[in-house]
Amino acid sequence: MKKISIILSAFAVVLGMVSCNKELELRNPNNQTTYEFGDSESELQEAVISCYNRIRLEGTFARVGYTMDAVRGDEMWNASQIWYLPYDNLNISAGGDDIGTQWIWRDCYHVVNRCNFVLQKVETVDLKEQAYKEIKGQALFLRALAYYTIATYYQTAPLFNDYAQYSSMETMYAPCVSQDELFDQIDADLVEAMQILPSRNQGGEWAGGRATCGSAAGYYARSLMFRHKFDEALVVLKDIISGKYGTYKLMADYGDNFREGAAENNEESLFEVQYLDYGKGGSDEEWTPVNISSNATQGHAVESNYAPNMFGSWADLAVSPWLYNLFKAERCTDGTLDPRLYWTIASYEPEYDIYTGGKNAGYPNGNDPRCNVIYQTPVTATPNTNNTNGGFSSAKWTYARQDVCSTIVTGLHCGINLRMMRYSDVLLRAAECINEIEGPTAEAIGYINQVRNRAGLANLELSDFGSADKLFEQIANVERPKEFGCENGRGIDLIRWGFFYDSGRMAQLKDHGNYVLDGTPNTTYPVENPTGSTFQYYQPGHEYFPIYQSTLNANLNLGAGNSANTNTDNSVEFAAKGWKVRPVVAL
Question: What sign results for the dihedral spanned by CA atoms 58, 61, 62, 65?
Answer without folding.
Answer: positive
